[in-house]
Amino acid sequence: IQSVLDTGEPCRGDRVFQTPSGRSYFFEYIYTPVFDENGKIEAIAGNSRDITERKIDEAKIYQLANSDDLTGLPNRRLFSDRLEQAIKQGRREDKVFALLSLDLDKFKKINDRLGHEAGDLLLQQVGERIRACVRDIDTVARMGGDEFTIILTNILNAEQTKIVTEKILTELTKPFQIKHHHVDISGSIGITLFPQDGLEPGALVGNADRAMYAAKKLGGNRFSIYTRELRESGSTDYLI
Predict the structure, then answer these.
(1) What's the pTM?
(2) Residue among 68, 103, 105, 146 flagged as catalytic
């Protein structure tokens, strides 16, 4: 309404209203100025319509397009968008964030031994455990197969990232209950930091993957932090 008063132009938008019972309704509205004979606004006419069903359909479409069918986590598409947003925020506010690439150890053997259905159940539980280790502002995505990525936003330093990473590794080593079977797995995690390791999405993802593969080569159930030496020489002497 204030916008109509200030500009003398119609204003469109939508709003959500919540009933005392907690149910939400969405309405699309338009406010239009009514002028008197002197050209001054003497009233504002308003009109609205219920668009709740449309909003529900839009939310379903968004969920299908951006979520992994199996785990419900963000998929590769939404992860890419979240990474872009993290980079923009990092540049704008001089913030540091960490990108983690995680690959499960021994998953193929378990999948072959117990079957794909059991493998799917395992991936669902893995996603839940990883999500429980991070904050609501962080992103856990499934990239496909047994590969996951984590964006830890607004971190203070590398030590904070190590603490979260060690927590994830510890949770993954706890037995999983899959169809009356106790399943033991572990994870290999690669870590890269923005902005010190890279400023572009492709560079950061590549750095995290290189560090993850280095951790896997060392036997798994550990993490490695990306360094420039890793890219230049492939040496693993300096890995943590």
Answers:
(1) 0.75
(2) 146
